[in-house]
Each structure stands twice: as structure tokens, then as C-alpha cells.
Amino acid sequence: MPQQDIAVQPAAGSTPGVSATLSIPALQRLSVRFNGTARDYFGVWIVNMLLNIVTAAPRTVQAPPLQWPLARTPFGARMPIPDIATALDAPAHALDADEQRFVDQIREHGWFRTEIYAEDDQPGFSFTTGFWVGHGFPEVIVFSLPPEVTHDVLWNLYRMIEAGNPPPIGVPTDTLFRGFKALLVPVDRSHYRDHLGWNRWFHGGDDFPCVQLFWPDKAGVFPGQAGAQQAFKALQPDLSEHGWAWSAATPNPPQE
Q: What ranges do the domains of the chain cover?
């Protein structure tokens, strides 16, 4: 299995989720404590992203596809869930220590965040595992936000889904960022191999949906809209099927 940094169980008394990192196979843990708000960090995202341009993981995140038994048991889902088998159903002897830790996190918290750091001129990104199998909502990938912001945003998104109030897909929404709109767009499966390695391992292949979370600049402009700077667009590679060929990328689209 390739080396990558992923979230691990937080220290006692901390908020569940990404409060430490695990480097595979080195198994180095680095404690991180977040004392600000998502809005504080979002306001200085440029500085954070410059500080995060480090080489910490390979760009290709792959894991061997595995086939699990067909039977599975939901773990407290409130919404209809897909009738699928995942690594949650794998017998213990089929998983190594890191894989078991990954699965245990999803059992305990309902989901897991994998973080891939920036490398050279490629932006870093994070993606979820557990949204689809637990609640029937696509997994989510987001680029270039500071880790603390990503942590808060994805936890808030998970709680919305868990409560039965998922955000819309394909249209801007103001339910994810305070004072800014967000946009969720389906990811084309041709991008799964290079970006969603742990998800492909967990699901035993590419048979799961994923959406990309886009965020705007301070003027409220999304990367694919007129007026977006090229440097800003480079922070959020478009993983959709047609590359900015979605209605929200065009200002004031014609009414049908």
C-alpha cells in the first residue's frame, strides 16, 4: 500500500475527526489543536495554502481493489443506504493493522477524512470515506482549503446529512460556508484512480459516487466563472466530466 497521510483517532477530549495525522507506513503521529473558527482560517486561506505547499505524499493514491462478502449491517444510518458490501464487511484476518484502523474509525465516527498534502505545483486535497455507505450521500473531495477549515466544513456537512438535511448538488448553496456559497459537482470516475485510492480500496472498486466541493474567492466567484483568476482556478482542479461545463460556471445562465 502506498505511503500517504491520513487522519487518525483524536486525542482524548478533542473534537472527533482530524486532529492528528498518520503516515503510512512510518506511523508517525503529529498532534494538532485547532483554536480558531472556520471563518478565521478561511479569511487567511492564502497564507495557509502557501505554508501547506510541502511534499508529504505521492500524488497517485491507489490501493488494491478487493471484493468483500455480500452481507452487511448498517451502523445507525437515518437515511436509506445503498445495499453494498465494503471493507466494513471484511473478516479481520483480511485486513492489516492500518486497514483495520481505517475501518475502525468509520465504525466509530461514521466517516473518515484522508488528507493528501500539496506536492510541487499540485494542490493538496482531502476526501471523505463513509458518507455513501452510511447515509447514501456521495463521498466528498475538496482542494486547497486549510486543514482546520476542511475539518469543520466536512464535519458540518456530515451532521447535515446525518440529520436528513443534505445540501443540494449542482447548484450553489449557502449552507456550508458562513458568508460564502459553495458548490457540489459530481466527480467523473476517470479521476478516481489518481485521487480516491482509499475509497477505491474501501468500496472494492469504483462503484460509488463522489462530488467535488468548490469554494469561491472573496468576491464570490467560483473557479469556472468569468472573472476568476488563473492562479485561483489552479487551486481547485475540476474533476467533473466536462470541465466547467456546468451551469454554475456561467454567470447568469439563461432560464429554462
A: 38-249
Residues 65-112: tens digit of each pLDDT: 333 333 333 333 344 556 678 999 999 899 999 999 999 999 999 999
- Per DSSP, the residues of 217-244 read -TTS--TTSTT--HHHHHTS---SSSSS
Reduce the DSSP state of residue 39 to 3 states and report it.
helix
Question: In the chain, which ranges are E strands?
Answer: 5-7, 20-23, 29-31, 112-116, 125-129, 139-143, 183-186, 210-214
DSSP type of residue 194: H
Q: Which among 244, 126, 139 has a CA at the least distance from the CA of 189?
A: 139
- What pLDDT does 36 receive? 57
What is the distance between the alpha carbons of residues 141 and 162, in angstroms, rounded to a whole number? 18
Residue 23, all three cell numbers: 503516515
Cα separation, 135 vs 105, in Å, equals: 16
Measure the CA–CA gap between 49 and 47, rounded to whole angstroms: 5
Intra-chain end-to-end CA distance of the chain, in Å: 49
Among 111, 189, 116, smallest CA distance to 153 is for 111
Which residue type sits at 200? R
Size (the chain), residues = 256
